[in-house]
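Exercise 3.2. Students should predict the tertiary structure of the chain below and write it as structure tokens, then compare their answer with the key that follows.

Predict this chain's 3D structure.
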Amino acid sequence: MHKRFLTWSDGEASREWAMLSLLAEHSPGVAPRPIQRAQDGDAPVIVMERLPGAPLSARDFNETIVAELGLALNRLYQVPLASAHEAGLPERRVGPTKIVRMLHYELNQLRDVSACADSGLVSEALDAARDYTARPDAHLTPRLTSIGIADLNPANVLWDGHVCRLVDFEDGGLTEPAFEIADHVEHIANRREGRLSAGALGKAVGLSDEDVVRVNQYRVLWASFWLLMLLPGNGAFSRNPSGTTEDQARHLLHLLAVHV
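Answer key:
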């Protein structure tokens, strides 16, 4: 299988190669085995093995698949951190040390939400997110204790009827499991279907009670991230059905009420 990247500038190919190499050495079978780095014109290419299984959709998640996904993610998180450092793997995109600062900046930009079906609701949620990211308790002490895939769109999980395997590591890097679980369950492709719960996935991965608390705090940040992505002017606004932004606003306000 050949994966062609658009540019060198963002380092996606280097991230993917480092992640796949680490997994091939320490947790073989979780991800494709990397075979070769190449170049197609001006674009980087990674040649990797083709894995069995078909991509999941958010509607496919059930108790069995979530349990197997938890095992795959646990094996990912068990890759020795020292090996990741030796490989020069950086922090994942939108990582634990950066997300609050990024959100606070973006939430303080002027936003025209007049195209939303309920602009008042969306504005209320944006204001609440802005207030939250300005609070000291929004800044959890970052922990870069493992590596993570970052983008767990359901299509990046392959299921062969018995085992979950993972693909697409171009955004991956140093992170912490609680941050990753929060990202995964709040991903709009997962959350809209409601089949992948933080409790079930956290249990399948084997999170500690402390990590469960951190997951819920991180979920507020990721819900704020997706509200921004779903605002008018962004691609996700036009790609999703009318009312998706309002649903995300209600979801964020609920998380703030329950977990903050």
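Discussion points: The chain has eleven helices and eight strands. The longest helix spans residues 209-229.
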